[in-house]
Specification:
hypothetical protein yedk fold, about 15% strand, 5-stranded mixed β-barrel, 5-stranded antiparallel β-sheet, alpha+beta
């Protein structure tokens, strides 16, 4: 059984593994260290359009070969009937034509027998040995990203038993025409006690698993078989692995499902099983939301990680810490290798970007550099213009502030001057009024004095 996968391969790596030129539904791909069902996984399958074109071309070639054979047979018969035997002609025998025809038929029967024997040997070797195909024959392949699981009314079927697939009516018509190969970096499996394990390939960064898909729903299922050896220690079922040399044989719809499966893929003495190894991983895999590289941590590394970051770090002695450092230096797990591989990939990507942008001596590289330089010049000019505009705007703002300040000062001065004038006018008016009052008072006093003087004079 195969419950979870993990794949962090780039699209270019997937296309190189598939050895195909066409890619479909690329936007569905999401690389993760914890890929469960109901997600889209990369699959190699036959391109239906090109396969149909090839079938028509093969049929036309067969027809042309049959026509050519008939023409050759007719020409041979004409030549045989017309060509006499020179030895018998010299002796004067009339049966030269019969002798030549009998001789020709004898050799022709021998040739036909040899051709038939060679065809039988080729077909027998084709099922027992993997077919090595040229790169030119990979053009009919396609890399497609399909939905993992066949959804029915009651459940979502993600795996199917390879031994019982022909007994089910829904999957029987798909076994010959709709066969595919799933690409993964590895998979997770659980024991009956729910202890997780990781299975991966030592020599390669990927695995190939046989599958069946439907074109209508774009769904895929993985084939499983009875486990044995180290696989049986974890689970009683395991996926049906396939090698690169056997992919073309598995995808060929002309070869029946039984012949490929039982004669080739279910054999136990295959090098694929020696390349695969496993170890107990952390319980982070049980959480489907955890999609980081922590899922690949071994159980011991997970313990150490908890002890370092938890309360246990406060109760350790120096000897224990030194022993743990020695163990870590001696043993390097797949998790650490994966971390180093990620770092190397990042550095390689940066190096390739640097080479593509600056160190490419070809014409395209020079043009790119020229374009880059021109863009840089344009950007620098734009930056200079922006800075000039900013300076001009700042100067304009300063001048505006100065003018505003000067206008405010002038308005204040005007207000003060008007106030002063008003005060002067008021003061002058008050002075005049005071003078008038004083003059009137003086005249009044003078009149009183004269009045009293006049009265005094009269009394006297």
């Amino acid at each position: 059984m195969c419950g979870r996968l993990f794949m962090r391969l780039s699209p270019q790596q997937l296309q190189q593994i598939a050895r195909c030129a066409t890619v479909r539904n690329f936007q569905r791909y999401r690389s993760s260290y914890n890929v469960g069902p109901t997600n889209y996984i990369p699959c190699i399958k036959k391109n239906s359009e090109k396969s149909n074109q090839q079938e028509t071309q093969d049929e036309q070639k067969d027809e042309q070969l049959e026509i050519a054979k008939q023409q050759n047979n007719n020409s041979n018969q004409q030549n045989i009937e017309s060509v006499p035997d020179p030895i018998i002609q010299e002796e004067g025998c009339e049966a030269s034509n019969l002798f030549v025809t009998a001789k020709h038929l004898f050799y022709k029967e021998k040739e036909n027998q040899q051709i038939q024997m060679q065809e039988i040997a080729d077909t027998e070797q084709g099922y027992n040995q993997p077919q090595i195909v040229n790169e030119s024959q990979y053009t009919d392949r396609m890399l497609d990203f399909l939905y993992w699981g066949f959804q029915t009314e009651f459940q979502n079927i993600i795996n199917i038993r390879s031994e019982e697939a022909e007994m089910k009516k829904t999957f029987k018509p798909l076994l010959n025409k709709n066969r595919c190969v799933c690409i993964t970096q590895g998979y997770y499996e659980w024991t009956p006690d729910k202890i997780p394990f990781v299975f991966y390939n030592k020599q390669k960064d990927y695995m190939l698993i046989c599958g069946i898909y439907s074109e209508e729903n774009e769904q895929v299922m993985l084939l499983t078989r009875e486990s044995f050896g180290k696989f049986d220690q974890v689970h009683h079922r395991m996926p049906v692995f396939i090698e690169e040399e056997e992919v073309e044989l598995w995808l060929n719809p002309k070869i029946e499902y039984k012949e490929v499966l039982f004669k080739q893929l279910l054999k136990r003495d295959r090098k694929v099983y020696d390349e695969i190894s496993s170890y107990r991983c952390s319980n982070n895999v049980n959480n489907i939301r955890e999609q980081s590289i922590k899922c690949l941590m071994s159980y011991e590394e997970h313990k150490k990680h908890l002890e370092r970051n938890g309360i246990g770090k406060f109760f350790k002695t120096s000897k224990v810490v030194d022993d743990e450092k020695d163990e870590e230096a001696q043993t390097q797990s797949y998790y650490q290798k994966e971390l180093s591989r990620q770092k190397t990939q990042e550095t390689n990507e940066l190096a390739t970007q640097f080479e593509n942008t600056f160190l490419n001596d070809s014409k395209k590289g020079e043009e790119d550099n020229k374009i880059f330089i021109s863009q840089a010049k344009v950007e620098s000019a734009l930056q200079i213009n922006n800075s000039i505009n900013r300076d001009s705007q700042e100067s304009k703002q300063k001048t505006q502030l100065q003018t505003n300040n000067s206008n405010q000062i002038n308005s204040l001065k005007k207000e003060r001057s008007t106030k002063e004038k008003q005060e002067q006018i008021e003061w002058s008016s008050t002075k005049k009024s005071n003078k008038l009052v004083k003059a009137s008072a003086n005249t009044f006093l003078e009149g009183l004095e004269q009045f009293f003087q006049n009265k005094n004079n009269e009394n006297k």
